[in-house]
Amino acid sequence: MKQDLHIATALRRHFGDWRLWWTRGVFLAVAAAAGLTVVGFTWLTERALDCFSSLQQLHWWAPLLCTPLCTAAVVALTRRYAPGAAGSGIPQVMAALDPAVDAGHRSTLVSLKLSVAKMVLTAAGLLGGLSLGREGPTVQIAAGILLAARRLLPRRSVISEHGLLVAGGAAGIAAAFNTPLAGVMFAIEELSRSPEQRNSGLIVAAIVLSGVIAVSINGNSTYFGVIRGAGVEAALLLPALLVALASGVAGGLFARLLVRSLGGQGSDPLSRLRRRRPVAFAWVCGCAVAVIGVVTAGATFGSGYAHTRHMLEGSEQAAPAYVLFKFLATWFTAWSGVPAGIFAPSLAIGAALGNDVALLTHYPQAATLIALGMVGFLAAATQAPLTAFIIVMEMVDGHALVLSLMACALVASAVSRAFSRPLYATLAAMQPQPPQRGP
Q1: pLDDT digits over 307-320, tens only?
Q2: Distance (Å, rounded) from C-alpha 243 to C-alpha 167?
Q3: Are 428 and 95 in contact (CB under 8 A)?
Q4: Dihedral of alpha carbons 214, 216, 219, 222, sign
Q5: Percentage of residues in the chain with pLDDT exceeding 70?
Q6: Cα–Cα distance between 372 and 299 in angstroms, integer?
Q7: Which of 357, 391, 372, 136 has its CA nearest to residue 258?
Q8: What digits encode the pLDDT tens for the residues 221-262?
Q9: Residue of 338, 329, 334 whose CA lies nearest to 424
Q10: Which helix (H) or strand (E) holds 236?
Q11: Calpha distance 293→275 (Å, rounded)
């Protein structure tokens, strides 16, 4: 009898509390809105890059004019109206998760206003052909949308701002790549740093809703198509080891360059120019990206999505020294100060590196080494091997490559640590600190 009373009381408390149902309804509605926003952002960035590609095909010299001007304009607008929108967006979300950050300073890192600015400015960067990805920005965009829901929740809501930020960031990665497991792992590995039981339901709900909306509109297709590679075999061991070591070194150097250059403490002429005249410096970076793009016949412009997809399909070969040129174009883009992610360019660099090793070693299954290069360089650049492994794993047809991808991600990430500190955590620590209050 007492047990029945306890059950009845629990059911009444669970189903009779309107605040609980209001909280759930608001969260689900905002998570769905985040999914729709990611779909719209994807469409906007693709149309922007299409416009640039059309202009480039009409006049080969057009990027020499429009890319520097676009870069300078984006940096000027970012610095004037939305300084918190600069860069990838992931460091801002990580900095906003610091318990010491109050609500006022948090709004300078993640907010609905910054989400809108991030969408427009990132698309504008692709309109100029800059070498950037939309995945990092998507994390900040989705986190800002979910954080805005805090105003609609009851004062004693069980959903904290920390939970909304983690759920939003995870949903952003999941919808951007159409890889739900990667969203969960990204939340654990980069954002929350630990699988918090209190937030696990929020993360999964946000991922499911945003993922369902993205799939229903864009279709159930993977980001770079389906990778069909060979399983583990003796002939794969040496080429795979070369890819893991090379991608680890290259990714570690890439992360080190980003940390050093974005830190802004260098004494070289370019670093001094960046501190004194950031818009002029952005124009210089835009010129470098334009020249590299023209020299490579347009191969390095944009995120590298189409180029990588064609390489995987075997319909296109990487241009000579594509790895170096794409590396430099992505570095100059990030250094300029525009809102820009590095996930897609990193996958493109890794894919080309794997393809180069396949040509060097005459390994017949080039798609296998391309996949290993993708996971290796991304894991090394971000030092988030599990997230990188799951992103690429969900593109693979079957499980033949799973062990190889996991091993490559771990080796490349370990090698990268010899060259650089963790990229996003270091950049998060560089975010502007709130003013110190007096005693």
Answers
A1: 887 777 766 666 77
A2: 34
A3: yes
A4: positive
A5: 83
A6: 21
A7: 136
A8: 555 666 666 666 777 889 999 999 999 999 999 999 999 999
A9: 334
A10: none
A11: 26
Q: What is the DSSP letter of 234?
A: G
* 229, burial (CB in 10 Å: exposed 0-12, middle 13-18, buried 19+): buried
Burial (CB < 10 A; 0-12, 13-18, 19+), residue 310, is middle
Question: Rounded mean pLDDT of 272-282?
Answer: 93
Inter-residue contact 326 to 96 (CB < 8 Å): no
**For residues 170 and 129, what is the distance between their CA atoms, to the nearest angstrom?**
27
Residue with tokens 């960035």: 45
Are 293 and 300 a contacting pair, CB within 8 Å? yes
Residues 136-170 have pLDDT tens digits of 899 999 999 988 888 877 776 667 788 788 888 88
d(CA 411, CA 68): 38
Q: Residue 128: in which H helix or E strand, if any?
A: none
Sign of CA dihedral 276, 279, 282, 286: negative
Determine the distance from the C-alpha atom of residue 215 to the mean position of all C-alpha atoms in its chain, rounded to a whole number.
Answer: 19
Compute the distance between CA of residue 88 and CA of residue 381 in angstroms, rounded to an integer. 13
> pTM of the predicted model, to two decimals?
0.89
State mean pLDDT over 87-114. Answer: 88
Q: How far apart are CA 395 and CA 186, in angstroms?
A: 17
Residue with tokens 């059309």: 54
Domains and their CATH numbers in the chain: 11-218 (1.10.3080.10), 234-429 (1.10.3080.10)
Is the Cα torsion angle 153, 159, 163, 169 positive or negative in sign? negative
Q: Which of 100, 151, 183, 171 is nearest to 437 (CA)?
A: 100
The H or E element that residue 57 is part of is helix 18-58
How far is residue 125 from each of residues 70, 92, 164, 192, 244, measured CA to CA in Å?
Answer: 7, 19, 28, 30, 31
Taking the C-alpha atoms of residue 328 and residue 155, their distance in angstroms, rounded to an integer, is: 49
